């Protein structure tokens, strides 16, 4: 037995409620409590390895493994924990993106008039950027879901399957939070940093799709590519309307 610190919310659940972080096999429990603080991690029936070794790990170690895009860490977070920050994280990421675009728009505008009308216009610009960023994100996700629906409809049979994948995609977009430090510590290499952040977020999204649906690497990247086409379609539409994006 080992002292796991009680990181998981429940030792037992309905059959298949949890997943083995190594082989994606279904598991009914993550650990068994023998009382007096002694816990024994369950062994997967398929691969004979611990179902979830991460229940003993410090959150910082789990985060580092997630940043390294390890499939085991993603399975732990997506299937074996109860994290309900998806919507808040999504809104905060969109605010970061909107702020970055708004800042770039202000830099391109040389108008320094302190008039109230100008201030209101600038405030409206921020709301507009938030709306555009939201539509782009929605289009990106829509492209992913449409691609997966047409290629592997058996993977998304129920509403809960859609919700789980949506949560995984929103969580895996946490890299967008790096947009703010990249802007605050502005440097000649900032455009390059922003490009790296974009690539990192796409890699994280691809890993989230792969882990959630237990796919190979090719289909998630195809879905990401179609999602980017949808997103860029929205960008082109706004540009034709004469809006700065």
TrEMBL record:
It comes from the Eukaryota. It is a multi-pass membrane protein. Keywords: Endoplasmic reticulum, Lipid metabolism, Lipid transport, Membrane, Transmembrane, Transmembrane helix, Transport. GO terms for biological process: intracellular sterol transport; regulation of plasma membrane sterol distribution; sphingolipid metabolic process; sterol metabolic process. InterPro entries: Arv1. GO terms for cellular component: cortical endoplasmic reticulum; endoplasmic reticulum membrane; Golgi apparatus. It is found in: Endoplasmic reticulum membrane. Pfam families: Arv1. The chain crosses the membrane at residues 85-103, 126-150, 162-183, 218-241. Its main location: endoplasmic reticulum. Belongs to the ARV1 family. Mediator of sterol homeostasis involved in sterol uptake, trafficking and distribution into membranes. This is Protein ARV. It comes from Piaya cayana.
């Amino acid at each position: 037995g080992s002292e796991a610190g009680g990181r998981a919310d429940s030792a037992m659940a309905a059959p298949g409620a949890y997943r083995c972080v190594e082989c994606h096999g279904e598991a009914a429990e993550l650990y068994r409590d023998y009382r007096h603080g002694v816990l024994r991690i369950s062994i997967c029936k398929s691969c004979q390895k611990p179902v979830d070794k991460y229940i003993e790990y410090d959150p910082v170690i789990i985060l580092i493994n997630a940043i390294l895009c390890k499939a085991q860490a993603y399975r732990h977070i997506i299937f074996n924990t109860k994290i309900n920050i998806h919507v808040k994280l999504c809104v905060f990421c969109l605010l970061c993106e909107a702020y970055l675009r708004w800042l770039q728009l202000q830099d391109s505008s040389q108008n320094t008039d302190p008039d109230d009308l100008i201030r209101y216009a600038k405030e409206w610009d921020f709301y507009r950027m938030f709306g555009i960023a939201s539509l782009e994100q929605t289009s990106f996700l829509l492209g992913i879901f449409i691609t997966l629906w047409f290629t592997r409809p058996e993977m998304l049979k129920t509403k809960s399957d859609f919700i789980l994948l949506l949560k995984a995609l929103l969580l895996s977009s946490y890299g967008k939070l790096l947009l703010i430090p990249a802007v605050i510590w502005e440097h000649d290499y900032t455009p390059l940093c922003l490009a790296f952040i974009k690539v990192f977020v796409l890699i994280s999204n691809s890993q989230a799709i792969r882990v959630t649906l237990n796919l190979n690497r090719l289909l998630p990247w195809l879905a990401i590519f179609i999602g980017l086409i949808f997103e860029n379609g929205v960008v082109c539409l706004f540009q034709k309307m004469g809006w700065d994006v």
